Amino acid sequence: MGLFDSLFGGMESAKKLTPQQAFAGILLAAGACDGHISDSEAENLMAAVGRMRLFQRVSDKEFSQVMSKLMGILKKTGPDGLIEGCTAALPKELANAAFANACNIVLADGVVDSDEKEFIEKLRNKLGLDNNVAKAIAQVMVIKNKG
């Protein structure tokens, strides 16, 4: 932690994340965990939030602001820092859904590299998911993304 981080806090922007911001942040971190966000990962993120009740009352302008805030946190702290703040702010009842959608995003481009595998394991731990539940979710997402 650098001097300014200790003075101003490394995750100052993430202190008061809403459930929507936390959920979207986890998905953004999943897309960025390998160093870049592919078009298919971005499309899957948008599709995931677009079909959720959690985001029904979030306007396009508000969602754009959410993503700008999250991109700022991602640039400052990287994917690990982003999930740190997001998992802390995410309601427990959304943990399985966030994990499933993160797996879906990681699988979206058809390649799962070591950074993505490591990210998914860190996310599982941060969300406090049972290993068997997480494995079942990941298996379903693999099946969903075949072909």
Any chance you could write out the topology, listing elements then pairs?
Blueprint: H1 3-8, H2 19-32, H3 39-50, H4 60-89, H5 95-107, H6 114-127, H7 131-145
Observed structural traits:
mainly alpha, 71% helix, 147 residues, single chain, 7 helices, globular
How would you describe this protein?
The chain is mostly helical and 147 residues long. It is 71% helix and 0% strand. The protein contains seven helices and no strands.
Query: What is the terminal-to-terminal distance?
Result: 44 Å
Total helical segments: 7
SSE-based structural type: mainly alpha
Main sheet properties: none
Number of strands: 0
Residues in helix, %: over 70%
- The H-and-E topology, N to C, reads as HHHHHHH
Cα-atom Rg, whole angstroms? Answer: 15 Å
Strand residue content: under 5%
Task: Please state the overall shape, judged from the principal axes of the Cα atoms.
Answer: globular
What number is the mean pLDDT?
A: 89
Q: Uncertain spans, ≥5 residues at pLDDT below 50?
A: 6-14
